[in-house]
Write a structure and sequence with these properties.
The chain contains 19 helices and 19 strands. The chain is of the alpha/beta class. It has a 15-stranded mixed β-sheet, with helices on both faces. The protein has a two-stranded parallel ribbon with strand order 7-14. Strands 11-17 form a two-stranded parallel sheet.
Length: 476
């Protein structure tokens, strides 16, 4: 009798499992997603028993159709903070980037903002020294948004600095990502609030909303001080950005901006602030009239799963099409959509010096193995590939023709382009482009150049694992 009951129970479980798999497959197909993603999810739930279903439950559901954020309201808020700001539009721009500038302007209401001075940082030590100095000089308000905000030594130092400024009467607002900052204690954020600092999580995670929200995170790293100093790039707030690991440094890129470009960062922050707090802020006090601080015109592009436009990836594609001399890309994860991979290969074939640098050692092994599957085709097309070995390369920097520099939060993968809320500065300036080029070339000193001969010697088992993980590249 016991054996019969166990057999019956097992049969019921198998039937329920099969029904669940079939249901997920039907839902994924009916949602008319990108065919590549559709196939990837079907493969995941069919060939990864139970793991695939759990993976889909947390990361596969399209919550944008469940009104996590109203697309209509989000689109409206994109335009409102910068509407009527007479000082933000720069009418002169580099002619060679007319197509790209118009694309971003028309797609994302992203005006070209001139008169900026931009400093690039390649280490956490540089970035945070300048950031703390700017915070100490702040007079009116400080806005901060980070994917990772931890209560370690660096985080506590930032907290103490902000609390001092709050006591001086400054308005301070903080947005942190619930998932990215999950290791920080609740008390850490409560201490901000007790000090009078408005502190809100982005898409607060709770058991009831976990599966609909976990897939949509703010990956942005934004600081705005008094409306004219801003920071954007790849560095979060955690000790590892200063101290690195036992096996190497944490190599990253961040930008400090003075000038009208900061108004673009301010706009992105205030859109997110409305979402997390339902408080609409469009006062001109947060968009002061600014003079010229430098010669760098820029566009601040934000993207996320709501607009349906994939603004950052479209901008990158246009930059690849327009490139005539060189394309230098640094990214921790190289998982490009097929169209972007094809565009890079085509650029190399037509004679553009295309170089891709990624980390030899990664914090995400599965993503790294999937990244490896793209290397052979890149090398065949003439793309130069480098593996950074001094530490973990987390830099998200791109340079086109030594005159267009992209610095922001987006990785070179589908998750950043389609799922995460990201922000990217498109900076049109030859002087800065030369600086960015020199950073890339300097990092080549600590990188291994990948040759087709050596890469072809990799074992069959390694190549198979890489190819297998590529099947799930759109989901990583």
């Amino acid at each position: 009798m016991t054996i019969q009951l166990n057999s019956a129970l097992l049969l019921i479980i198998e039937i329920l499992y099969l029904l669940t798999v079939v249901s997920i497959v039907v839902v994924v197909i009916s949602e008319n997603r990108n065919p590549i993603k559709t196939v990837a999810w079907i493969l995941a739930v069919v060939f990864l028993p139970f793991i695939g279903i759990i993976w889909y439950a947390f990361f596969g559901q399209d919550a944008t159709k469940k009104q996590v954020i109203s697309r209509r309201m989000y689109s409206k808020l994109k335009k409102r903070p910068l509407d009527g700001m007479e000082t933000v539009v720069e009418h002169t721009f580099p002619v060679e980037y007319t197509n790209l500038i118009n694309l971003l302007q028309n797609m994302d209401y992203t005006p070209l903002l001139g008169g900026n001075d931009v400093t690039l940082f390649t280490s956490g030590q540089e970035k945070f020294e300048h950031l703390f100095a700017d915070i100490e000089k702040a007079e009116k308000h400080i806005h901060i948004e980070y994917y990772v905000l931890l209560d370690d030594e660096l985080g506590l130092k930032l907290q103490q600095s902000l609390i001092r400024k709050a006591k001086e009467g400054l308005e301070i607002r903080i947005i942190y990502d619930s998932f990215g900052s999950r290791k920080a204690k609740k008390k850490f954020f409560e201490d901000f609030r007790k000090a009078g600092i408005e502190t809100e999580p982005f898409l607060r995670l709770s058991l009831s909303a976990l599966t609909s929200r976990l897939n949509y995170r703010t990956h942005r790293k934004i600081v705005v001080i008094d409306g004219w100093i801003g920071y954007v790039g790849g560095m979060n707030v955690a000790d590892r950005y200063l101290k690195g690991f036992d096996w190497g440094c944490w190599r990253d890129t961040h930008a400090r901006i003075e000038g009208k470009g900061v108004q673009g960062l301010q706009s992105v922050f205030l859109i997110d602030w409305y979402f997390v707090s339902q408080t609409l802020i469009t006062s001109r006090d947060y968009f002061p009239i600014l003079g010229n601080y430098g010669e760098c015109p820029m566009q601040i592009v934000n993207s996320g799963p709501l607009s349906g436009e994939n603004e950052i990836s479209h901008g990158i594609m246009q930059a690849i099409y327009d490139a005539r001399e060189s394309i230098f890309i640094q990214t921790p994860y190289f998982l490009p959509p097929d169209a972007m991979a094809d565009a890079l290969q085509a650029a190399a074939i037509r004679g553009v010096d295309v170089r891709i640098m990624m980390s030899k050692r990664s914090d995400m092994v599965l993503a790294q193995r999937a990244s490896y599957s793209y290397i052979k085709d890149m090398l065949k097309a003439g793309v130069k590939v480098y593996m950074y070995h001094k530490g973990f390369l987390h830099s998200k920097m791109m340079v086109f023709d030594g005159s267009l520099t992209l610095v922001g939060s987006a990785n070179f993968d589908s998750r950043s382009f389609e799922q995460n809320f990201e922000v990217e500065a498109f900076i049109y300036d030859k002087k800065l482009g030369m600086r960015a080029d020199s950073i890339f070339v300097e990092d080549q000193r600590f990188s291994e150049s990948v040759s087709m001969r050596e890469w072809s010697k990799r074992t069959v088992s390694k190549r198979f694992v890489d190819s297998f993980m590529r099947l799930f590249a759109p989901l990583l």
